[in-house]
Amino acid sequence: RGSQRMRARPARALEAAVSSSDTTTRRLLLFGRLALTLGILGWLLSRIDWDQARLVLATAPWWAFVVPGALMLTNSALHSWRLVLLMGAVDAPVSFPQALSALLRAAFLGLALPSGGSDLAKAGFLGQASGRLDRATVALTASRLQDLLPWAALLVFGLAWGLPARDPMLALVAAGFSAVFLLIPALAWWASGRQVTVTGRWTRWLAGAALAVEQLRARPRALLASLGLALPFAFINAFVAWAVIRAYGIELPLVHALALIPAADVVISLPITVAGLGVREGVFEHVLAPYGAQVELAVAVGLTRWTGELTRAALGGLLFLVGSKGPQSPPA
Question: Fewer CB within 10 A of the terminal residue: the chain, N end or C end?
């Protein structure tokens, strides 16, 4: 027994060292993102004429600040219905209010969490509501994979529209990520049909996840219904940007927006800065420059569009204040 304890000590020491190293790495990455965010914001703000910026913001009609929030909430409602379908398909049912509450509260936490933190929060809230974190993770992953398909379709549309000639940088982004967005769901579907043996402390959890994947594969109607509800996702995001751009008087045709914005959103969504601050505004400056937009106008467009995300986050914060979690399901 004493020798077993002696052998266990190096293992525990190694585990503690690895855990400490991971924590240090995460802190360094977060510090780096914060520093980069401040640097990009400082560079961008130094180029702005603030008197001109106030005049630009004053020209925006009231609906420019309402449309982003309304349409982002529409996306959240569609996503909630999809999660209701997928969670039901893996025998971990949740109600629509529970799914919507999970998305909105995760949006609130996502303002401060590192990249990917919002998705982890969604899985946690859905697992809390259903009593099955493993199956909630599978359902949420399936929904995220489905989101990639309409996004990839619009990226391909942008390439066919003429991105390589009009904007080679965005064309490169569209070509690379459209391939990735189509490949990842295909590989996930292929891998879900294979038997994978996993041992260790997460065996029970992974076994539950594997069972959930099998259930999803056995219920194609739920997957197809969820995919159908996912189709408007990328279009709504591009339409929000187009509406805000037109609100500021920039003559950007809707077809141009459908070709440009999905590729721009790829860059904005990369985990470069906190909440995309600075990157969002810089990307809009790049995209709108051929249409005569100055930096002040591009920053106004980027910030106005961001009000959609802030609206969702604000509602999530209110749900935290009132303590809304929805009725809880007993653990399975």
Answer: N
